[in-house]
Amino acid sequence: MQLGTSRVDITPRVGVELAGFGPYLHRYSVGVRSPLMAKALAFEAGGQRALLINCELIGLGAEMCSEVAARIAEQVAGLDAGAILITCTHTHSGPASTPMTGWGEIDPIYLELLPDKLVKLGCAAFENLEEASMSYGEARCDNIGLNREREQDAPPLEVVLDPAWRSQAPEHTDTVVRVLKFTRADGSVAAFAANFGCHPVVCCQETRYLHGDFPAIAMVALEQEFPGAAGIFLQGAQGDINSCVVHKPEEEALRALDVIAARFAASIRAAMAAAKPAPVDRVAFCRKTLSLTPRAGFGPATLDGLEAEQLAVLRRPGMRDDDHAGRMAMVTWNAVRDIRAKLAADPGYRTRVPVAGIRLGGVELLGAPFEIMQMIKNEVVAGARAEHVLVLGFACGYFGYAPDREIAERKRGSYTTDVVPMFFGEPPFEDIHGELAAGLLEIDGELA
Question: Which of 111, 121, 364, 425 could form a disulfide with 338 if both were Cys (CB 3.0 to 4.6 A apart)?
């Protein structure tokens, strides 16, 4: 196979608002702890080409991903736009980079300049093609994530920084890091990609430095061990998984950041050492659009009720603009108005999202634009035909959470199941678990 790598610094200027953690927090950055990077891997085998672009950002809109892919395909001979998979790591210590009501104000200049950088990045990767071989490895990684829906979130720092700490519900977390290692003809490492599902939120709402959180810090350390190699973190199914350190004061968060990054780097290092050859005799790709069923009964009457509830909160005597309840009500009210406009224009409106896959020999990358929960990923991996399956979140765009059936039923009407889709101007989903799993397995079947 032929492999090409490239990278570009996508760090915004200091002062932009950071994304995530709550409504209208005004988390304006005060410095750069580690530059934010975008990296690309170009593949060629069996007469086909494919491209993987990864950005250390919270997410990108589907329209931008489509635009970037189309522009790269126009400039690279033999490359189909459908063979370009653009993913994000979901760092909460980066700029707001996708429309998400109230969760960080987008810097318009930054977002205007970003597509050109990504197009040049993708084209450069094909200019750097060279002979390489791929190997696949796994290693335990059970000392970083916990299931915030099924166990205590944000345990005390002294507990989770103990080297012996492990999740109380490992069966509901990602406990294995999956690594693709690409080696040049001379034996040197050209690139490595680590797939693992966990929110990068060691640094959270009380921190204001720009960086890619623990996965990016781990990649920086490993790239120093393998000079010239491009290290990429491929976010997996993390919708219900937090890092074991989260929601801590700035001093504690920054102290823990390097500790958690070192744990992650150690697991990746072990997976690389254990990697076995995984020959790439062909490259294949597939892209589809899923039409998702909206929540039954979610219509104008529901929106009327939601609007009345939010206005009642906002007009409560003594309401202040620093009150969390008021800020959440403002976010929801704005979302109600967005969805009302869509339903007025199309009473049968359904959310349409892109999903995609790339096959590299016996390894398959399946991507969807959601914060996928572990049970969905497990179902997809169990049902897939490929020998090794990497499920990627934040691919081809970003549309919020994809909760599994148990959480969707137990937490019906909650932030996860109802409020977050509305942030993106979409009605809540009826069966995102079933429809997303079926869509990804359909792609797997076509790539077989």
Answer: 425
> CB–CB of 25/100 below 8 Å?
no
d(CA 181, CA 230): 10
Q: At what angle do helices 374-383 and 432-447 cross, to 10 degrees?
A: 30
Q: What's the burial of 273, exposed, middle or buried (CB within 10 Å: 0-12/13-18/19+)?
A: exposed
Q: What would the DSSP string read from start to end of 92-143?
A: SSSB--S--TTS----HHHHHHHHHHHHHHHHHHHHT-EEEEEEEEEEE--S
Is pTM beyond 0.90? Reply is yes
362 CB neighbour count, 10 Å cutoff: 16
Angstrom CA distances, 114 to 68, 117, 340, stand at 10, 5, 31
Rounded Cα–Cα distance for residues 356 and 181 (Å): 22
One-letter amino acid for residue 307 of the chain: E
H-helix segments, 275-370: 300-314, 324-345
Q: What is the mean pLDDT of residues 104-118?
A: 96
Nearest to 435 by CA among 390, 394, 388, 402: 402
Measured between alpha carbons, how far is 116 from 103 in angstroms, rounded to an integer?
Answer: 25
The dihedral through the CA atoms of 362, 368, 371, 372 has a sign that is: negative
Mean pLDDT of the chain: 96
